[in-house]
User: What shape does this take?
Amino acid sequence: MRRTSARFRLGSAVAVMTAVVTLGGLTATSGVAAEPVETVAVGTPTGFGRATTGGAGGSVVTVTSASAFASAAQSSSTQEIRVSGTINLSSMTRVTSNKTIIGVGSNARITGYGLNIRQANNVIVQNITFSGSADDGINIEYSTNVWIDHNNFTGHNDGALDIKRASDNITVSWNRFYGQDKNSLLGHSDDNSSEDSGRLRVTYHHNWYDGTNQRNPRVRFGNPVHVYNNYYSNIGSYGVASTTNAGVLVEGNYFENTDDPFHRGEGSSPDGALVARNNHFVNSGTGETGGSVASIPYSYSVDAPSGVRSSVMSGAGVGRI
Assistant: This one.
């Protein structure tokens, strides 16, 4: 089942009075008092990122330029940032703690470069097309409680969505990845166990890996990493790889035209553990499993894998929340 789209609601029972100011590509909405303060983020995360609330309760700003976006994203304040139209970044742009970044309508786009969620806690990114970054679409490092949901990723020079360097408690859900080779790396180096062991716990669910060649994801150290109810279509090299002390549960996914849906080890990285259960295969291989994976520490519901193709194609990506 597609998750509900109920909004977070916070605050006390006080009437709302707002003032709106537009300046330099940024519109700010501030409340004199607020009840209920309602976040612009839609739905609630499932999985390791389940505690994430982003900028809920903070000021709401609408940005239409790269300078206004960077100013809001790098602010030390709790903020909900609405992206309107195309933002063309000239470098990877830092996102700090307690931020919600959400696209307005179906045409919000970040291009040129992507987001660097670094040393941050509590960040939501929703409903934005990330395209044509000269680096990554989104890079996450030294960050916790992050929810990446209902976005499109395509045409990035490096990774579409990379998660590394001691990051933890992250959910990646209902995104569409396409036109991408090295798609999603989890853990950047076999030599980084001092930072990554016991961390890099990520849930990937209801994403559409649409012709992405490899790293869907490629995992180091995270255990458990939960990959469930995703749709893999026309994958060129491989779907999921578990390496270097990782433990990955691959559950209830739909693999179509994917010769190598999942395996252990990749390149010079040694085998990690991989457990697969209740997946659906159409014109695909059956994958490689082995080892044991830590138990999943949260409640969740798995859709019937035979129906995942339909639900993900109709529900994943921008404009579907």
